[in-house]
Amino acid sequence: MREAAELTQPTTIDLAPARRGAPKHCGWCGRRLPEGGNVGRRRRYCGQSCRQRAYERRTALQRSGLPEDAVVLSDTEIAALQDRLFQLRCAAEDIVTAADDGADARELRALAQEIARAAKDLEQLR
To answer: What is the reported pTM?
Structure first.
């Protein structure tokens, strides 16, 4: 009987479905988007200028015949990316060398923090 009483209890229904897959960052510059309400379309860009740049990129890609997911980098951008990858590799090698030399936990932690910082910087491709 108790189970039957529990089944007849009113339940709350969430009328606004959770927004899964909503972008949390601007589709152009990568800045964090402000939290929006449950009404309307999800924001994809932080502002009109980012929206315009994304439109210009899409139309340029259509004219060039490149695939939509293509990434085009200048020589300067490639060199900068390679430099940042080199810094990350050197920081990882520093940890290996320090561990082989018997470094204490404090020193290893400082080196690990350096790797984390370099990796975070590397995530920012724009």
So the answer is: 0.47
Helices in the chain by DSSP H: which ranges? 2-7, 48-64, 75-100, 105-123
Q: What whole-number distance in Å separates Cα of residue 2 and Cα of residue 126? A: 60
Handedness of CA 34, 69, 82, 99 (dihedral sign): positive
Q: Which residues of 80-103 are buried (b: 16+ CB within 10 A; e: fewer)?
A: eeeebeebbeebbebbeebeeeeb
pLDDT score at 22: 56
pLDDT in tens, 76-114: 988 988 998 998 999 999 999 999 999 999 999 999 998
| Pairwise CA distance, residues 45 & 30, whole Å | 9
Distances (CA, A) of 49 to 27, 28, 29, 30, 109: 12, 9, 10, 13, 41
What 3-state class would DSSP assign to 113?
helix
